[in-house]
Amino acid sequence: MTKADIVNEISKNTGIEKVTVQKTVEAFMETVKDSLTEGKNVYLRGFGSFIVKKRAEKTARNISKNTTIIIPEHFIPAFKPAKTFVAQVKDQVKK
Predict the structure, then answer these.
(1) What is the pLDDT of residue 95?
(2) What b/e sequence results for 15-33 when a residue is b if at least 16 CB atoms lie within 10 Å of its CB, and e otherwise?
(3) Phi, psi (degrees; rounded to nearest 5) at 56
(4) 0.85 exceeded by the pTM?
(5) Which DSSP letter does residue 3 get?
(6) What DSSP string runs through 10-66?
């Protein structure tokens, strides 16, 4: 599902204009990005958490040049779904 699909679905379910829904969805995404950039996690009860994870420094290999490189400690964004969300997906999704 794409952002456009989400906007269409919300607009259809709520009766709100697509332009307004699109601005709202984009504002939500910007707010989450800004919060994570500042190191603040975003918690949405019943849905999940957008969190900042710390990756430790590690040694890696460049196979083509046969050299060792050090990847410094860094932070990455991650999503951790709520337990109820995970349970619902487990119960509903069929292969």
Answers:
(1) 66
(2) eeeeeebbeeeeeeeeebe
(3) -70, 160
(4) no
(5) H
(6) HHHHH---HHHHHHHHHHHHHHHHHHHHTT--EEETTTEEEEEEEEPPEEEEETTTT
